[in-house]
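Feature request, filed as a ticket because there's no other form

It would be nice if the structure record came with a short human-readable summary line next to the tokens. Right now we just get the raw output. Example of a typical job, pasted below so the devs can see what we mean:
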Amino acid sequence: MRRAFFDTVTDMAQECDDIYLLTGDLGFGLFDEFRSKYSERFFDIGVAEANMIGIAAGLALSDKNVYCYSIIPFLIMRTFEQIRIDIAYQNLNVKLVGTGGGFTYGLEGFTHFGLEDLALMRTLPNITIVVPADPLEAKCLAKISYEYRSPMYIRLGKTGEPRVHNSEPDFRIGKPIFLSEGSDIALFAIGSMVYVGKQVVERLKKSGVKTTLINMHTLKPFNRNIVCQVASAHQVIFSLEEHYTEGGLGSSIAEVIAEKGDGGIFRRIGVDKLNRFVGDSDFLREKYGLTVDKVYDRILKEMKRN
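Raw output as currently delivered:
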């Protein structure tokens, strides 16, 4: 996914000489072409991510279109004060591109988990938050991001993510993508969990459950109207995210449903609390109930219970 995104940014940089790329001592190999072709617009700031945000703000104030890249905990958690003051409050044209959403870097341990980022970024003013589900969406988003002249947080996985779409989708900020429609239950998914959601829908279909699956790639601005429409048409709704259940997609939906006053059933599927597990991403997703089998079983169990 990150390769698709930055290959597109590199292609755009040939025509757009205001594109600048900053990294915090990461992306070796990923940025070779950009660094070779546009060395005067590429800066490796080193292990000094807070400084990177300050430099990005200065470049943005000089009418540059800036992309900052790092692993999510270093890009978002370590630099939150700088993002808040230098980027968000001043509404500057900086794209924060974080890799390693959820348990992607699971083998590196708790320090490298990306589970709080969406909750943190939701609280800040002026920032658009977008989480593509596959490389095709990442490519579309790279093109769109250049035209955006305000802060944006882009949450990516790493490499080798499966395709959700067979061809380039109609990807627009703030417009969710309906991947299936059914009358029994609705499933809102974001990022890496959209592909899991597709597989779960197929399993549910064989069990006689007709499911609406919505790819909620834009977390902010949040499309409240779509949530209200889906809630009105379905008595049972689930959210699916590789993030803490607090503050992310599930919380966003819960806020809308609570204010709407619907009496239907809504359940959040994500990470409820952190245990002492360390392992690769597949191992951790299994342990935290985010695999196809675990999500499928959870949905059936909730349906029987209610």
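Something like this underneath would help us a lot:
The two ends are 38 Å apart (CA to CA).
The mean pLDDT is 95.
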